[in-house]
Each structure stands twice: as structure tokens, then as C-alpha cells.
Design goal:
The chain has five helices and 16 strands. The chain binds zinc ion (ZN). Zinc ion binds next to β8.
Length: 261
């Protein structure tokens, strides 16, 4: 049971045309040398390669600051807007030089309205890319899904310093330290649903990839409540990736909808 609340009605943007590119791994999707510091940093991405021009010129870019209204005036709505159906998968990790990515075997998906998007991978950012009411979190997890049309949907979950996260530790213990290395651990299964907050309140809008080529028409759902990782767990990731978060982008004329559980 969900109720929807419109936070900002500044214009309408549809999640529409299919993407033509495959972006299961940011570093494999492109050849230009992009990164997070110096001349390869996010403010230069649009100049690094012609296929990156949306990073500079796009009007529906991610991440954004998500503003949650203080006063709830939600109207009742009985439809299940977002259904999450994740299954366990054998642990398959890649250090692609930009993040740690966990590849997912087929069979896990989300349904958003009538559209089904299959989970293909998830990965981590430090610090968080999105903000809520101006606040950053220590990390952000992105579950990347693909529709049969090629459209992408990404589910974001914040991590904040707190209790030790035993499920996260399964990934951390197998995390390849060197770029380009991968690790398949066939006898360890992980389940993406263990990385979701108990409360499913989320914010949804139309955005982009947060890495080059910054393709748009990406459906974003960002969970409002964080999960935890211990300070030591956050430190372990940040030692490999001191910063891999794109700065906040302009909202422009976009609609952000808060969906209450
Ligand atoms: Zn990401």
C-alpha cells in the first residue's frame, strides 16, 4: 500500500526512449580516461570525449539534492508502485577502477508500475551521490536494472556509519584491491534484498547515469532511510576509493515524487 506525495511540480519529464548503450560496467562502457580528481574530474567529463557531452549539456542529470517536505499532505493510493523481487546470487566481484561492482545472475528484478527491470549489478559510491535535504551520507549503493527495451532503473540506498553490517562484510572480505581484478566466490551467495532498509519510503525522478557517458532517461528510486556500515567498513572502501561521487546536478524542470510505504 503506497501513498504518493508530489514534492515539486516544476514540470514533467517522462522516462521514455530506450537507451542504445550497455552500461553494466562504467569503465568498460568507454575508453576515455575519466575519474574524480584533476583533469579527469566530473567538471571536465563533458570535454573528455564527444560521447560524454551529456555530462555537460544534459538537463536531467544525476545526482540531485532530494528535498523532503516537512508537512505531509499525501493522498491515498492503493497501487503497489514499486515491487522488489531479489534472489540470492553467487558472489562475483569486480574492481573496475571506479568502484566495486557486484554482478548479478538473471532472475532478480523490480517492477515499477507495469514495467519490469532486471537487476544486473550493484556497486558503491563514497561519499553518497544524492543528498536528502542537503545532507550527504557516508556511502551510497546503486542497484542497476535494465528493462527489455534497454531503459535503465537504478535503486539507491544510503549507508551511514553505525552498526557493523555482516552481509556487507561478505563482499568486503572478497573485494579485489587492484583495478581490473575480479573475484568469483562460488560457495558464497549474497542477496541484494539484505541491503535494503526496512522502511521502503523512497523518492523517484527521471535522471541519468552518474558516470560517463551520463546517459539520461534513467528511472531513479532513492530510499529515504539509510542502512548502516561500521566506520571500519566505510574506511576500508574509502582507502581504495577516496572519492567516487559525482557532485550535485541542477534539478531543472523535473518532478520528484515521494512515495510512502
Ligand atoms: Zn552508481
Amino acid at each position: 500500500m503506497y501513498r504518493r506525495q508530489l514534492l515539486k511540480l516544476l514540470g514533467v519529464s517522462a522516462v521514455g526512449t530506450p537507451l542504445s548503450i550497455c552500461v553494466t560496467s562504467p569503465v568498460l562502457a568507454t575508453t576515455a580516461n575519466w575519474g574524480y580528481i584533476g583533469k579527469a574530474s566530473p567538471e571536465h567529463w563533458g570535454d573528455l570525449a564527444p560521447e560524454f557531452q551529456l555530462c555537460q549539456l544534459g538537463r536531467q542529470q544525476t545526482p540531485i539534492n532530494l528535498q523532503i517536505a516537512g508537512v505531509k499532505t499525501a493522498q491515498s493510493n492503493s497501487e503497489d508502485l514499486l515491487v522488489i523481487n531479489y534472489q540470492p546470487t553467487p558472489l562475483h566481484l569486480i574492481n573496475n577502477g571506479k568502484t566495486i561492482q557486484v554482478n548479478y545472475q538473471p532472475g532478480s528484478y523490480i517492477k515499477y508500475g507495469n514495467d519490469t527491470f532486471e537487476l544486473i549489478q550493484f556497486h558503491f559510491h563514497h561519499l553518497s551521490e544524492h543528498r536528502i535535504n542537503g545532507k550527504s551520507y557516508d556511502m551510497e549503493l546503486h542497484f542497476v536494472h535494465r528493462h527489455k527495451t534497454g531503459n535503465l532503473a537504478v535503486l539507491g540506498v544510503f549507508l551511514q556509519a553505525g552498526a557493523f553490517n555482516p552481509k556487507l562484510q561478505l563482499i568486503w572480505d572478497a573485494m579485489p584491491q587492484q583495478p581490473g581484478r575480479e573475484n568469483r566466490v562460488k560457495d558464497i551467495y549474497i542477496d541484494a534484498c539484505h541491503f535494503l532498509p526496512a522502511q521502503r519510503r523512497f523518492l523517484t525522478y527521471s535522471g541519468s547515469l552518474t558516470t560517463p557517458p551520463c546517459s539520461e532517461n534513467v528511472l531513479w528510486c532513492v530510499m529515504a532511510m539509510p542502512i548502516t556500515a561500521s566506520p571500519e567498513q566505510i574506511a576500508k572502501f574509502s582507502q581504495i576509493f577516496p572519492t567516487n561521487a559525482r557532485p550535485i546536478q541542477p534539478l531543472n524542470h523535473r518532478l520528484v515524487t515521494e512515495v510512502l510505504e
